[in-house]
Write a structure and sequence with these properties.
single chain, alpha/beta, eight-stranded mixed β-sheet
Length: about 250
């Protein structure tokens, strides 16, 4: 009963927040300059975490200006907003997210680049989009696993979308997301398997003591400096650093 009441209260505030996001994204965001857009995105994402009852604890030193590729492990649909609450980020996301009700439209409006892995030309188009974002000094977020996991380990990384950052000589920074539930490591919040988005929202909004620790680890490459590693070697090194943090905790 308590969990149900918690869900109802949070759901009401979530609906109000989503409505405010829709109105802002549709009517105001197009007329804002980039710094104001970024500030609005960060504040809205922080509010979303508050409404969902998610405590975000940040560690490390993220690159907060200029172009950077943040590479993170992927656990839930809230990962996008967790990172956006630290620095406004344009994500590379699978095409299915665009079709999610409300959330898909919102993430599209804040610059998400969608990739259809079933199309042969998809990687080339996304690479060009990433190059354009880097040229505008934007932070790009990449979930290199390509799908979500339970958050207790890290799946193998795809290396193909590391190439645009290598060519642009952009910093690549690993980011580890570590989920906690009621003081213990848990995969309860993970959006995996046959679970629906609505089902996962129910789990999240009815839960208590949800915490996500975000570790911005030292960059693998630096802005303006060519990498001596291949994209496959970079992907492996980034995954190893993230996995060491995820599994250790």
């Amino acid at each position: 009963m308590i969990a149900f009441c918690r869900f109802v209260v949070r759901a009401i505030f979530l609906i109000l927040l989503l409505l405010s996001g829709l109105v802002t994204a549709a009517l105001a965001l197009p007329f804002m300059n980039r710094p104001v857009q970024d500030a609005v995105t960060k504040v809205w994402s922080c509010c979303l975490m508050l409404v969902c009852g998610v405590k975000v604890v940040r560690h490390g030193t993220p690159i907060m200006s200029g172009p950077v590729l943040w590479v993170a492990n992927h656990v839930s649909w809230i990962d996008i907003f967790i990172l956006n609450s630290w620095r406004a980020t344009s994500f590379i996301a699978k095409q299915e997210i665009r079709r999610w009700p409300v959330i898909g439209w919102l993430v599209a409006r804040v610059g998400t680049v969608f990739i259809d892995r079933g199309q042969r030309q998809a990687i080339g188009r996304v690479s060009e989009s990433m190059k354009a974002l880097f040229e505008r000094n934007i932070c790009v977020g990449l979930f290199a696993e390509g799908t979500t996991s339970d958050g207790l380990d890290v799946r193998p990384f795809s290396s193909s979308l590391f190439e645009p950052a290598v060519r642009a000589q952009v910093a690549i920074q690993p980011v580890a997301l570590v989920f906690w539930y009621e003081g213990q490591r848990s995969g309860k919040m993970a959006f995996i398997g046959e679970q629906t988005l609505i089902g996962n929202i129910w789990v999240l909004l009815s839960a208590r003591q949800v915490c996500v620790e975000v570790y911005c680890l030292p960059p693998i490459t630096q802005n303006g400096q060519p990498s001596t590693l291949s994209r496959a070697e970079l992907a492996a090194q980034v995954r190893d650093q993230i996995r060491a943090k995820v599994v250790a905790d």
